[in-house]
Amino acid sequence: MEHRTVRDALAGITFLAVANFVAITTEVLPVGLLPQLADGLGVPESTAGLLVSVYAFVVAACAVPLTLLTRRLARKPLLLTTVVVYAVANVLAAVAPTFGVVVAARTLGGLGHALFFSVSIAYAARLVSPLYTGRAVTLVTTGGTFGFVLGVPLSTSLGAAVGWRWSFAVLAGVCALTALLVARLLPPVGVEQVAPGGSPHRGRSRLGIVVGTNTLLFVGQYTVYTFVSLLLLATGLTEAAVGPALLVFGALGIVGLWAAARYLDRRPRALTLATVGVMVLALVVLGLALPQRLPVLVAAAVWLAAFGAVPAAFQTLALRARGASADVAGAFVNATSNLGIGLGAAVGAVVVAGPGLPALAWTGAAAMAAAGVVVLVARRAFPRDPAR
Fold first, then answer.
1. Any residues with CB less than 8 A from the CB of 108 and at least 6 apart, and which?
2. pTM here?
3. pLDDT (tens digit per residue) in 28-41
4. Following CA atoms 269, 274, 275, 277 in sequence, which dihedral angle do they give, to the nearest 10 degrees?
5. Can you give the pLDDT at residue 197?
6. Nearest to 236 by CA among 324, 297, 191, 179
7. Is CATH 3.40.50.720 correct for 1-188?
8. Start and end of every Major facilitator superfamily (MFS) profile domain (predicted)?
9. Between these two residues, 265 and 106, which has the higher pLDDT value?
10. Secondary structure of residue 44 in the 3-state scheme
11. Where in the chain is the domain with CATH 1.20.1250.20?
């Protein structure tokens, strides 16, 4: 791969980005379909929200073990297997006769997701020479951002128009097409050599702080985001308008991604603190403003725009902690992100069933504020100078 640029590897990077798109869309698809899922399966909306929790807890439990167990297997067949698993899981969800079968389908999808990201990110890095690794990884992960920007809103709109089962069925078709493209056109890469020896204690401590803070942020995010459709409906927005609203919010996440690309290599600490502070403030305003439509929409837009910087920031911070190899550090970020998603969805379900929607936003803000305190205190894990 010496001297291989992003342009040289653009086809492979594009297919990996598409795979990231279907991965993220599969993970968060139920978020925009909660009312339809609840009605169609005969369960409360708070229970339907647990479909996000089940998926996320499977990823959290399995990401690191599966990454370690499969690190000597050929990369392309392994990546292809994970995409096929997404397709099968979405087909099962589309035809599921009961809520229990949908849970089983989500569990299967979670197993594929547990392995997908550590494989795909390392794959992207190996398609190019080391000089271009950062650019290649950024382009691949942009596919996941577009899962939020386009995948979920379009699937939500489709579900509102013709039923939630069609959203899963269409996504299954997209996954199958992606698997075909990966099988035929993605160039193979070699198996990454496992680095000998252990990590320094200080590096492991920094990594632990980073991924622990990542967990808190995702708890706060998904306490609220899992039930964002309910928040929008509470303002008087119609079900048909929820999909377009999520499309706009997802697009605003690109603002956060741009901020991460611009400042993460120069001012990582300032970027992280600013991102967390903006999200906390926006969620507090959202909770106070309910059910007034305009301030809720503005607050939600600001909150989700800021969150766009979080995944890239914490992936980079975890790598810079030097507490584990790149694939294992990535697996820890994947695991803790999904632990946070699962816990957040579960906490949100309790809050929705109890105190109600305004408390949902405040609970999410509290978890994010706790993460902000850790960033303030742990200067070694969140350094001002990225070279430290």
1. 85, 88, 89, 92
2. 0.81
3. 888 778 888 999 99
4. 120
5. 43
6. 297
7. no
8. 12-382
9. 106
10. coil
11. 1-188, 199-388
